[in-house]
Amino acid sequence: MRTDLAYVDEVYHFPGLWEVPSLCGLKLVRRPDRQVLVVTELFDQNPGTSVTNFCAELATRLTAERGLDPDKLVFVEHSPETGSKLESYAESFYRVSFQRDGARFVRPDWSELTRAEVDALLAP
Fold first, then answer.
1. For 37-63, what is the mean pLDDT?
2. Which of 32, 33, 51, 88 measures 20 to 30 Å from 5, CA to CA?
3. Direct distance between the N- and C-terminal alpha carbons of the chain, in angstroms, rounded to an integer
4. What is the pLDDT of residue 80?
5. Domain of 115?
């Protein structure tokens, strides 16, 4: 797997809780001052663990696999619009901040972002 790509947009497969096969959308944009990971919940396609329940492990795994600098990591959790009338299923973006335990990301903390703020993070 190439770890030098400036831009990645793919479906990412990972072993979730209890090693259940899981997947999410993955966008990685590398900028000189930041490395932005956007993980998207794929509600209908994901048979396993949600990105919300596995975000610290995903950050740890993806940082190692993709050769990312943990100090430049910006981790964004995205839930797409589902077409439901329930507000809890509207599109949302959250920046997830972590504490670190060695190479592991731990204790996630979520703060909501607007689409414009996410666009700004992804812009050159």
1. 92
2. 51
3. 24
4. 81
5. 7-83+90-122
